[in-house]
Every structure is written in C-alpha cells, then in structure tokens.
Design brief:
The complex is a heterodimer of chains A (414) and B (273). Chain A has 13 helices and ten strands. Chain A is of the alpha+beta class and 414 residues long. In chain A, strands 2-3-8-5-7-6 form a six-stranded mixed barrel. Chain B is of the alpha/beta class and 273 residues long. Chain B is 38% helix and 24% strand. Chain B is built from nine helices and ten strands. In chain B, helix 3 runs parallel beside helix 5. Classes of the chains: A alpha+beta (414), B alpha/beta (273). Chains A and B meet through helix 1, helix 10, helix 11 and helix 13 of A and helix 2 and helix 3 of B. The complex binds adenosine-5'-diphosphate (ADP) and magnesium ion. Adenosine-5'-diphosphate (ADP) binds next to strand 1, strand 2 and helix 1 of chain B.
Chain lengths: 414, 273
C-alpha cells in the first residue's frame, strides 16, 4: 500500500524531475522516441498498404481460383500458345471430380458486332460462361433470369446483358424477351446483370462498356473451337486454398498425362494464396521492423541507463537524506525505477505521436495508398509497453545502485 | 525502572584506512532515559559524529550492543533500520540537509512520505510542525529564501514531524552565528520541556550548558558523564565566564554576586531532572 502511494508520488516527482531537465530528458529519450516512432510508422504503413492491397484482392473474392493453360518454359517458342489452353472437357471433369471447389465456370472472351433495333456496336465483349459464373462473380440477374444449365446443354442462343449495354444499344429498361443480333445471329436476351466496375489496372478495368454473357457452348460453336480463355472456380472454404491448388493440379496432370519430371502445362492461382502471401510479407516486414526497433530501443535503453546513473550520482546526498528520513532501500529502488520508466514512457508516447503523425502525413499525399492507413492499437500498446520494459531493464542497475547506497556515505557525498 | 530510550554497551567503530585501522569509537557505554537532554562534547575527531550516527541508526557499530526503546538494533535489516529511523528518530544535521528545490512544507513532510503511521493530512501535519518552530509565515519558501537559522528550524520541524521518541542533533548550531545559535538552543530547551528526549553534539560549552547532562568523549571513549551543574569542566568554564563578565561589568562592582545567566539556567534544568 505504502508502495502504491509512494509510486504515485514518485511518478509526480519523476515528471517534475523531467520537467526540470527538459532538454537533457529529451536528448536522453531520443533513442526511445526514434525507436518507437519507427515501429509505429512502419507498422502503420505496412498495415495501411496491406489493407489497401487486400481490399483490391477482396474485390475479386477471396474464394476465387483462377486457372489457365500455359506453355512450359522448356517448350516456349517451339509450340503455339494455344496448344495448352483449357478444354471444356477438362473443366467438366473438374466440375464432377474436384472436392475442394463448389463452383466452376469457363471464361471464353470474344468480340462481336452487336445490333439492336436502333443501334449497332462493334467489338463488344462477349463472354461464354457456365451458370456458376453468377455465383463465382457474384453477379445475379437483376432482371429476367440467370443462365441455366439447359442453355448450355442445348447450346441456346441466349444472352445476358449489362446495364451499360441497355444504354448503349438503346434497349427497353427491361429488355428480357427482346432479340439482338450478335455477329448476325439472333440472340434472345434472357436477363440483365449489373455493370461491375473493375479496378483500374486489373484486366477489364477502366470504363465499363457493353457486355454480353452467353452459354460457353454457344460461344465456342460460333468459332468453332473447344478451348476457352481461362476458367474460374470457387473454393468451398477459403482456408483450403493450398489444398485446392494441389488437388486441381493433380487432376490436370492426370488429364494431361504429365508424369514425374514434366512441367505443368497449366497454372492454378487462388486469390486466397496471394492474400496469404501478402499477409506473410506484411508480417515479415513488421518482424524485420521490430528487429530494427529492438536495436534502437537497446541503444535508447543504454542512454537511459547512463542518464539514470548520472542522476543517482548527482542526487547521492538527496538519496542519503531520504534514507536518513526512513526511506527503505526498496522504496529508493522503486523511486528510481519509476523515474526511468516514466522517462522511457514519455519518450515512447512522444515516439507514438511522431509515428502517427508520419503515417497521417503520408496519407495526406494525394493518391497515397496510405490514405486509410490506421495504426493498430496493439502497435501503440506494444510501443508503450516496450518503452516501459526498457525503463525497467535499463533503470534497474542505477536503481539498485541507489538503493544500496549507505546513508552516511551518501550524506557525506559532495 | 522505566525502559531507557538508549542503552548502548561496548560500542566500537573501526574504519579501515588502507592498511591501518582507525578506532573512531573504542568501547562506549551509555544509558539515556526518557526526557533527558544530553550534550555530547569532545574535541574534533573524538568520535561524536560517529556515536550520533550509530545512535541514529544511520550507521552500525563494529561491535557492541545498541538497544533503542527496548529493541535490539544489531540484527535489524537495512529496511527495518530505515523504519526505525523513520518512526523513532529525528535527526538534525549541522548542514541542515534540506532539499534545495522543495518548499519548507515539502521538506518537512519528507519523513511522512516514508511513514506508515500517518497516511492522511501529511501537508497539515507538516504545516503544524513548521508553526511549532515559529515558521508559520515561511511555509512555501525554498531553502535559498531562508536564513541559516530558519533553515535549521525547518530541519528541526522535519525531525519532529513524525513524533520521534529521540531527537538527535549533530552540531545543530555549528553553522550559525551566536545569536541564532541561542534561538535554536532555546527551541531545543522548549522541546525538552515538552517532554522530548534530546541528544545534541556541540563543542561549545555555553551551548552544552543548556543540557541537563554532559557526556565527554576523547579518542573514542567516554571520559566524563555528569549532570551539567556538577560537570567540573563546565563549572570551570562558568567561573571563568563569570570572572570575565564581572571584569567587563566594571571595577565598581568587584566582588558583587552577579551570576551568569547560564549557570542559573543550568542549575534549573539540572534540578528538574
Ligand atoms: N568514513 C570514515 N572513514 C574513515 N575514518 C573516519 C570516517 N568517519 C570518521 N572517521 C574517523 O573517526 C574519527 C572520529 O570521527 P568523528 O566521529 O567524525 O569525530 P567528531 O564528530 O567528534 O569530530 C576521526 O578520527 C575520523 O577521522
Ligand atoms: Mg562531527
């Protein structure tokens, strides 16, 4: 109890001591300030950057898996790029046999001239898909109906159109039931999907245009061909990204009769894997920063120890007096320890403020990816906590020294 | 027989100075009862401060027993000794030893900070102690805004604030002029009259004359221990002082019965014991 009361008094005393030696205190705290400021700024920037990147990836959907054919490095330049394109039959096999995914759709992109009663547009994006496309891309039919398996099986000339297309082709507000011409073939509009903005810099990004979605079987029959541009699938569980990639790979390898040494002739990427990598990278940066900061805190701690030793020696008489007046060694120890901790924590708080300021300033730069960056609370707590720890660790030796002073010797000290 | 405040026997204190050992105290026995007012005298280096520091539990003897208010102090830990200092002892130093940047009240409150007895009203107690030494109007002055006598009063207030059973003062007037010294010693007399047990160190006979009892040290040993009124050295001093003042009073009054005030005072305090 007496220790608590004394600790409180000591905090006040320590603050007064700091205030009395402002300049010296600030110089002493510099190491801690820089250390904590650096960790706050680094963590804030890393977390901000991570959040920014992840938000972009999140717009893809974290359960999404992307797969495509590719030419192995060894064969590059010797075979045509289209040789290893994904075949519809492969995707059908995958749909039936892959346990880690719950939806899959081929994506076949082509361009077409599209005509309505009043308008004609060239090189309109026409995409051949399966009904799962709605689920995977989270694009429901807002009017009419979605694509259904029967459209695929019967190779129907039906299409979905987006909002933008209704505008550009001057169709009715609800055009389902109307017909348009796609490369002079009559297509029945069965439904409308929302125009989805894709972030700039990603495929299909930029200003939205007319889009048509048709059964992939219909799209391929117009060419005709059997391979698609790529395929998208959806994981049953985002946690299983790596398992899913492994399973899909092994299925493809079996289908493509690749053995032992053969390189993959396809790629499988899960958005979640990329997200995991980004998270790992961010953690790595944070850990590296923490390491650097630990060094700077160490340096700062040595500064604290030095100044506390100076303080003990300057105040030897005062210590002697306090002991003569009945201060027990433990109380003197606590007093000096509290002083070191207060010194470090004030330094830490200033460092946190500086770090926050730095992150906020970086966020003010126009177009900065850090504009929504927020320093997580845990970083601030750890910052203050570590400062306090440095105070305890490096204040301990001077405090023990003070507590062991002999009262008479201390009082005689000049 | 009531328990004495101080009971020491066979106290020695040796300092190692390189190869040779200096015996600052070489077997001191002393008993001081409640409400005694004792002056410790002796030449410089005779061991007065060493003895006081041991009595004040600031220092430990090399050998010997020290029983303070019935409690043996030899076996106490540094922490326990600190508590004894805090509870039982008020110490007044020759050089005041005030915290230079703190006000009089804060200085006086210092022992209360480390006290288990007084939790609340530390500031009030400190103010009362300052009033009792006549510094009611100097509460918020810092040491450098006070005269030497006032500083020593602050130090005395600090020594008294925790109501110690023993007040120790090592040459409390050593840094003061004679008029201020008189005021300070009057304060001690006043405290004694109110029941305080006091031991002071001094090398001035006239200061010692205010005490009831004079203990003389030489080379770390007690060489005499008398009530002030019967102490031969002090009587000698008084006689010579009387002669000097008689001479000064002028030839007209030769052989008159003018007695120095000190003696009457000493006789008075000696008689009340
Ligand atoms: N810390 C010390 N180290 C060595 N010798 C000391 C120490 N303190 C006192 N002495 C010696 O002990 C003797 C008594 O000292 P002290 O008690 O201070 O005398 P006084 O107060 O009577 O002048 C002196 O000879 C002094 O030199
Ligand atoms: Mg001395």
């Amino acid at each position: 109890m007496i220790l608590i009361r004394l600790a409180l008094q000591t905090v006040v005393l320590a603050l007064a001591q700091l205030w009395g030696n402002k300049f010296r205190a600030i110089l002493t705290m510099l190491g801690i300030m820089i250390g904590v400021g650096a960790v706050i700024a680094t963590v804030g920037a890393t977390e901000g950057l991570k959040a920014y990147v992840l938000k972009e990836f999140d717009s893809f959907g974290p359960r999404k898996v992307w797969m495509d054919g590719t030419v192995p490095r060894k064969l590059r330049g010797r075979v045509s790029w289209s040789q290893f394109d994904l075949r519809l039959s492969e995707l059908e096999y995958l749909r039936k046999n892959c346990t880690t995914i719950d939806a899959i759709t081929p994506m076949y992109f082509t361009g077409a001239t599209v005509r309505s009663a009043d308008e004609s547009r060239q090189s309109i994006s026409v995409t051949g898909v399966w009904p799962d496309w709605h689920e995977i891309e989270k694009r429901v039919a807002i009017k009419g109906r979605p694509l259904i398996q029967t459209d695929i099986d019967e190779i129907r000339n039906v299409c979905l159109i987006n909002d933008k297309g209704i505008q550009e082709l001057q169709l009715d507000a609800d055009p389902s039931g109307d017909y348009i011409l796609v490369n002079d073939r009559r297509f029945l509009i069965v439904g409308v999907v929302e125009t989805k903005d894709v972030a700039q810099g990603f495929p299909g990004g930029g200003e939205a245009r007319t889009e048509l979605y048709i059964p992939v079987t219909t799209a391929l029959s117009m060419q005709p061909r059997e391979t698609v541009s790529f395929a998208l699938a959806q994981l049953k569980d985002a946690k299983d990204a790596e398992e899913a990639r492994a399973e899909i790979s092994s299925i493809f390898r079996r289908l493509r009769k690749l053995s032992g040494e053969d390189e993959n002739t396809f790629v499988v990427e899960a958005v979640q894997s990329v997200i995991d990598q980004i998270n790992r990278l961010a953690t790595g940066i944070t850990v590296a920063a923490a390491g650097l900061v630990a060094i700077s805190l160490l340096v700062g701690g040595i500064g604290i120890m030095n100044i506390m030793l100076v303080s003990v020696s300057e105040r030897t008489r005062e210590i002697g007096l306090r002991k003569a007046m009945g201060a027990r060694p433990s109380i003197i120890l606590v007093q000096f320890l509290v002083e070191a901790v207060v010194l470090c924590m004030v330094g830490g708080l200033i460092g946190i403020a500086a770090g926050l300021g730095l992150v906020a300033a970086a966020g003010q730069i126009p177009g900065s990816p850090l504009k929504d960056a927020a320093v997580p609370l845990w970083a601030a707590v750890i910052g203050v906590g570590f400062s306090a720890l440095v105070g305890v660790v490096f204040g301990m030796f001077p405090a023990i020294k003070a507590s062991r002073l002999d009262p008479i010797v201390a009082l005689r000290h000049e | 027989m009531p328990t004495p405040v101080i009971e020491i026997s066979g106290i020695t204190k040796a300092y190692k100075m390189g190869e040779e050992v200096v015996g600052a105290l070489r077997g001191v026995d002393l008993r001081i009862d409640r409400n005694e007012f004792v002056a410790v005298m002796g030449a410089s280096g005779s061991g007065k401060s060493t003895l006081m520091n041991i009595l004040g539990c600031l220092d430990r003897p090399t050998s010997g027993r020290y029983i303070l208010n019935g409690q043996a102090t030899e076996k106490l830990s540094a922490g326990a000794l600190a508590q004894v200092r805090n509870k039982e002892i008020g110490f007044v130093f020759q050089t005041f030893e005030l915290l230079p940047r703190s006000t009089a009240v804060v200085n006086v409150a210092l022992p209360l900070v480390y006290s288990r007895k007084f939790w609340w009203g530390t500031a009030r107690r400190a103010r009362e102690a300052l009033k009792s030494v006549g510094l009611g109007d100097r509460m918020t002055h810092r040491p450098n805004q006070l005269s030497g006598g006032q500083r020593q009063r602050v130090a005395i207030a600090r020594a008294l604030v925790n109501e110690p059973s023993l007040l120790l003062a090592d040459e409390p007037t050593g840094n003061l002029d004679s008029k201020t010294s008189e005021e300070i010693i009057a304060l001690f007399r006043d405290l004694h009259q109110r029941g305080q047990t006091i031991v002071i160190v001094t090398h001035e006979e006239d200061i010692a004359g205010h005490a009831q009892r004079i203990v003389r040290l030489r080379d770390g040993k007690v060489v005499s221990d008398f009530p002030t009124a019967t102490d031969p050295v002090h009587r000698d001093f008084l006689d010579r002082a009387a002669q000097a003042s008689a001479r000064a009073a002028g030839q007209a009054a030769v052989g008159s019965e003018s007695r120095p005030t000190h003696e009457s005072r000493a006789a008075q305090t000696g008689g009340s014991a």
